[in-house]
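Please go through the protein record below and see whether the fold suits the sequence. Record follows.
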Amino acid sequence: MPEETVARGGGASQKTDLPAGKDNLAHGNTVLHQCPACQARDIVQLFYVKDHLVSGREFPVMRCRSCGMGWTADPPPESEAGSYYASEEYISHTDRRQSLSDYLYHLARSFMLGRKYKIVERVTGKQQGMLLDIGSGTGYFAAFMKKRGWEVTGIEVNDSAREYSIEKSGINARSPGEIKNIPSGSADCITFWHVLEHLYDPAGWLEEVGRILTGEGKCIIAMPNFSSSDADWFRNRWAALDVPRHLWHFTPRAFRKFVSGRGFKVEKIAALPLDLFYISALSYRNQNKSLPLLRGLLTGGLLAIRSGFRKEKASSLVYVLSGKE
């Protein structure tokens, strides 16, 4: 992990604190005093991170010394978070193909659609079933699964992305508030592809996961790895921090603690190998470095070799959770 510096004032908050021991982790304009994963209070400030996408503001990133979990301190209130996604550069909410990085993103996404399908099929043991995709964006994954015989419902907060997926692919896409209307015990698989780190109340969403999954259902969650080799390398310039859109920065150890405290078990962890190169290139682009793609490829290759291709040092990880006990 990056070298840490003690938070000014011992980590004291300038704003309101959350009640200790509460599972509701929604926070805006506050600094948590207790780790959301392990409840430890030994918290340090690592560094400030710049929002390169929209505001140009810097946000402090905190870390729990006990389990290694990180989080973005003093984020905007949830009611104002939408403005931090209001950019054509936020490609998961658009279908833009204007730059080389856009085309690379779409190429990688096309490759990953097949891999995601195989992951769902392998972990559920099913070729068809009911799938709930949280954070379905413009609906590419949902449409891919629908074509292969799955009954798919998407949950997407962005109105334009949700409407695009409905019009383009006929996806049954709903707003987040409508998740309460999904029947209990109805989903064979629930997916969060790089979504959980955005949610103001991940514990509340996991409660819904436990309610909606069938007894044998699986939940698949992909997220950046805060203890990855590229996180260590780039430190506060690591693009996967993506403040303030990314609120939570999980390590494998922290995530196991987080979900076990809510009745889930991590059955398997797998790496997403392409993310190392994409995130490295994006980190260089955010720094206005020349030839960011080439730099990203070279740095990604170097870091993969240095880490011995160890899964726990991968840039992004996929966690498979068993249903709530």
Summary: Helices lie at 100-124, 140-147, 159-169, 202-212, 229-234, 252-260, 275-286, 292-306. The chain has eight helices and eleven strands. Residues 45 and 62 are 4 Å apart (CA to CA). The radius of gyration is 19 Å.
